[in-house]
Automatic annotation (TrEMBL):
This is Bifunctional NAD(P)H-hydrate repair enzyme. Binds 1 potassium ion per subunit. HAMAP family: NADHX_dehydratase (MF_01965), NADHX_epimerase (MF_01966). Residues 11-208 form the YjeF N-terminal domain. The lineage of its organism: Bacteria, Pseudomonadati, Pseudomonadota, Alphaproteobacteria, Hyphomicrobiales. Its EC number is 4.2.1.136, 5.1.99.6.
Amino acid sequence: MDAALLTPEEMGAADRATIAAGTPGILLMERAAAAVAAAAMRLSGDGPIALLAGPGNNGGDAYAAAALLKSAGRAVRLFHLVAKEGLAGDAAIAAGAYDGPAETLSSFRPGDFALVVDGLFGAGLARPLEGEAAAAVDRANAAPVKVLAIDLPSGISGATGAVLGTAVKADATVTFFRRKPGHLLEPGRSYCGEITVADIGISDDVLDTIAPTTFEAGPALFQGRLKVPADAGHKYDRGHAVVFSGPAHQTGAARLAATAALRGGAGLVTVFAPASAVLVVAAQLTAVMLRRCDDAAELRERLADDRLNVFVLGPGFGAGDKARDFAQAVLGAGRRLVLDADGITAFKDEPQALFAAAGEAARGRPGGEPALVLTPHAGEFKRLFPDLAAEDGLSKLDLARRAAARAGAVVVLKGRDTVIAAPDGRAAINASGTAWLATAGTGDVLAGIVAAQLAQGTPSFEAAAAGVWMHGKAAEAFGPGLIAEDLPQMLPKVFAGLCG
Ligand SMILES: NC(=O)C1=CN([C@@H]2O[C@H](COP(=O)(O)OP(=O)(O)OC[C@H]3O[C@@H](n4cnc5c(N)ncnc54)[C@H](O)[C@@H]3O)[C@@H](O)[C@H]2O)[C@@H](O)CC1
Ligand SMILES: Nc1ncnc2c1ncn2[C@@H]1O[C@H](COP(=O)(O)OP(=O)(O)O)[C@@H](O)[C@H]1O
Ligand SMILES: [K+]
């Protein structure tokens, strides 16, 4: 459960369960404040610190942190949105224990301080910031002062990462027990700065009843499910992935995906190319194999070889009838399919046909495991799920989850904050990668890496999450200046980090 991300509601349940089991809420608040105070000391040098306190427990944390900083001899001033008398519960207790002066938020001038600690709103943010709170946030953002956010930058939704009204641009954020989706989803992620997770004495056991369904895509989520080559294994144990190539003038994307599938750990990889492209492809492949495959009838013959267990369709393929026929043939044969790029676009006028084939294929698999993995970027997503894309107020998590449930597929909704969602409601958010991934062909490589994990028998959700994370790690390992071709070569480094 180390990978779990908790919605604000789930975090509230974790707090309540801990309190019900005997830990007073004020003790949790004091521990949270101790972590905030330690971070504040680190970030402020010896300079004066402003603490902004809101009307709820986030404000309570600010009061308790102010008390700790003050008793450590630091120059602190506290600015409140609501006077002490207006606070309730643990926040009122914390405010009562703070013996320094409290000023109104309207008198807060960020230029007077080395650090601003933002305790206006956290998990309880319920509506857009306005009035004094919004004005104070805007003043802090406009000033060259460091900001430390308590739990979440005020104005960021912990559930969705959305900015409600305006939001604090933090240099650092201290959150408690587990991160929230809003720490990883954009734009929230960009508002958080460096995130630390403080242990405030909530036991991991509370997660058994909360049963979170949102995770960070990373080794803690998938490591137990990844296959590593067995000592006495042979290549067929690691699966045989097939990548479909487009016509002669459009073979690069398939070759990128095929190389990535091989480097990603598939035992064998074959490119299926139309006759017109065979020579072009042959001239550029070595360990990757090549076969001709011109039409759906020929594909069905080839599908008789059940060692071919995973297919990648879309990169450079063309978005016409042939893409639809091939995808239906693969799913009809019960094989797993990574559908990307043109393969997705091909179904824009009849998405139901794809979803029906995916549903049928999943029903034939052990445990109803999804056979289809869709890897759209936002534009491709919109083609397949136009109504979802047009609906107001859906977060990227909501979009991917709703799409996965509808399609009976694992949906990988790409971008800086790629979300991977399964039809059963699980979702993962990826935080690996760099902006250098925004370059042509990196999506083709991702399709190949995901296919490699599927080929080895990893379940579809974990395979997709692992592939996305590895792809990002490969980009980090290469560093600035990468192009798509560089990514597969970095995978050995990523595996070395994973497998030791
Ligand atoms: N015992 C606990 O439950 C613990 C809670 N902790 C802190 O408590 C926070 C959550 O506390 P709360 O649930 O009280 O929530 P918040 O303190 O985030 O805010 C809730 C309050 O703000 C008001 N509000 C919401 N949006 C507003 C807006 N846009 N403008 C004006 N007012 C608005 C609400 O009516 C409510 O009074 C966490 O973020 C964390 O910092 C920590 O102290 C750890 C322990
Ligand atoms: N700013 C960014 N930060 C991190 N990753 C990114 C960023 N922009 C794009 N990516 C990733 O790069 C890849 C691009 O894929 P895609 O849009 O399909 O490109 P192409 O079709 O050119 O291969 C995806 O994995 C996406 O998540
Ligand atoms: K905050």
